User: What shape does this take?
Amino acid sequence: MKQFSSANSRRFGSSALALAAALVAQPVAAQSVLAVTGANLNFNGSDISGPVIETSGTFTRMLGTGAGQVQWTGSGGFAARGGTLTVNLSGTPQLEWGHDLFVPQGSALVFGSQNSDSGVIFVDDIDLDGSTGLIVARRNPQLAVDVTLTGNISDGSMQFNSASHAGNITLSQRHFYTGSTLIAGGTLSLSTAGSLDRSSVVEVAEGAVLDVTAQTDNNTAIRTLAGEGRVTLGATTLEITAGSTGFDGVISGTGGLDILGGRQALGGASDFTGATRVTSGATLAMTGGGSIARSAVQLNGTLDISGTDEGSAIGAVTGPGSIVLGGGQLTITAASGNFSGSITGSGGITIAGGTQGITRATAFTGQAVVAQGAALVLSGNGTMNQASRVVVNGRLDIAASREAQTFRSLAGASTGV
Assistant: This one.
């Protein structure tokens, strides 16, 4: 194992901060480097910057106060220099946060440094003992991944990164903690079998990223999504199993979104192109400027845009679910297929492109607009007799309707009825 010494290899600092919030509020400080010697190594940083050990190969020391052992009395951790560093605190089946000389409450487990040139692999399981753990990585723009956590984290809540420590952290296992997850900066990636499906909420702060592009099964589940950051799907479908929060950030990629339970709100203009599926009993709510203008919606539950500023946009809509407009205008950008559910509210709908079929009587009272080049097909029991006005600049087709079609007002340069 390569060793890198420092002129300052003594203990660093004597006081650990009481709260992680105080730690993450601090600016990036000059990072101290501990020399790897035969003496006891004590991570005793009083701020989020360290100190760290810079080395490569395998680090296998046990926790303890004796020579050749390692302990935490503050913040600190590991950085790889000269090759990958694998950290395995041997003899310890599970590390316990805040106990037995592992990271104390209010301190951080730190990875990476300004000098690191490779990634760290941390293999140990961590029991949070009901507390909130704080793991941060110092960003090195030359590295795709600053640290990979291959062990399991259980029994508590987690914060990954901060505004000042915004590195790339990868989780490669399913984690069993049921508290909250906060991605406060940088990127948290779920690779292969990585999962946060038991966490009560995953919050992605502004400027932070949740990256699920490497999921082996092309889908990953979380309970509910919050924050103002970004979710990068790749080709993966993100499953929301018990939605209860709002996400005002952006979801991108060729993957999709499944709302399998609860009420998930989206307040940002997401641009993912895969399908959105809302199952029976679940609700997808658009708020503020929320939209999924490039995603086709399979609606068996509820799409609610009543909380938007002026309305929302989706790619297409099919299924037997419910659309709640409130006073908003729902724009369908690339309509395809039939919608057999209900549409209610004082708002209206705009068919901006494609062909939208309606097979059930609607009850909304706002305006319906069919743009040039688009088509609205009323078939079966489909009607729009409650709409205040129907403006047809494209095509209106009622040939397959079983109902007598009446309109309160019909206008536009229709290409045919």
User: Anything to note?
Assistant: The first helix runs from residue 20 to 24. The first strand starts at residue 33 and ends at 34. The two ends are 79 Å apart (CA to CA). Helices lie at 20-24.
